[in-house]
Amino acid sequence: MQQQHDDDTNKVTRPEEEELQSARASVETLAANLDNLNQRKADVLNNLEQLRERINKEGDVTNSGVQKLLPLLKSVKDLESEESVLQSDYDVKRTELEAEVCNLEEKISAGMDSEVLCKDLDCLLSESLERLNAAKKELAARLRAVMSVKRKLGEVPTQSELIQYECGFSDLNAHIQEKHRQTRKYYATYNTLLEIKELMLKETSLLNSISSQFQDAITTTDGRTKLIDSMEGIVKGSQQKLQKIEAGLQQEQKGFDALKKRYAAVMAEQRHCYSLLKAFQEECAKNERLRGQTSVENATATSSIAETFKHQCITIDS
Length: 318
Known about the structure:
Elements: H1 2-109, H2 114-155, H3 159-219, H4 221-317
């Protein structure tokens, strides 16, 4: 009798051990999948951080280029105004030199002493050379300043380059949005797998509890009581989890119903707009037909009036 009881016990526990091994294998698979998802999540976060750094760097480069461009443009305007002032000064000096040349020509034509004339010419020549050298130095300094400003202006990005930067920023923004969508998807998958893992762990705990307490439950009354209490606790936990899931499902269903109503309202509005557009097109076509008929009738009436007037004129002449 005792041997038959042991055989029945082995028959009951053997399937439970197989289920326990299957549950453990499932838990190990889920743990591996969870580690893989954690690694993918870390990679996605690193990519997002790199993209943010690139955006910040390119934005800083653009802002710094604009800040550099403003003082350079101001310098160009100042140089242009100075150039106009120098040009006016050069015109005045040229006029003075032309007047001096005319004066010398008059002196030569009047027969002035050659020695006095040579001294005057030497003085004028030395003064002219000094002014010429000073003007050359000033011109060289101005040219260096202008070339420096031109080089700085060449370093500032042009309109086409700014357009390329803007296109690059747009592409980068689209790429970031796509990465953000993928990250949200990965997080949702991660949370789902985490809930599945919790359920599998609870199932494994239940099977372990049944396996450990089954012998006592069969042999003693206290063991049966403990097993029943344990099962009731597990059932309560499962019911709470089920209620939580049902509440979330109801919330999602409410959101879905609201979106469905909005979609139906939008589709009704779209159909109404289509009907109004069709009626408007029909009225436009009708208006065109009426205008064509009116123009034909006016032409006919005009021709008939002209014929009548012509006939009356012929009658009067005769």
